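Tokenised fold entry reproduced for absentees:

. . .
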Amino acid sequence: MPARSICQILLTILLMVPVLVWAQTETYRARLSPMPTTPQTVDSITGEGEVLLSLEGNMLTVSGTFDGMSTVATVAHLHNGPPAQPGPAVHQLVVTAATGGEISGEIELTDEQVEALRANSLYLQIHSEGNPAGELRGWIFARAE
């Protein structure tokens, strides 16, 4: 094989490496559980759920289910805040308007939000009619494969 052909093959492989590295998918999981936002809501919130998330580049795909909420879900958000500390909503998600259903979304994260995700500083929260400040919450952690 001529040296020029070998060089072209090697150059092609080297040019593909950044694409292969970028295209790797990172997987995450959040377990949704009742999280009182005030002392008055401790006895009125119920439910549970699980959400699986995948990150490719800066695109985060969210897909999960929940069940057993005390009242109908109204909205769901992705929040920025370290574990056990509330933080601001940074993206809205799609949620079934029922006491059980699905949560989903595709979100383009900023570079800072990707770093927050990798540092376990993002969480999901589902709000309900009876608990507009939030009924179910779950921090997002890397998923063990």
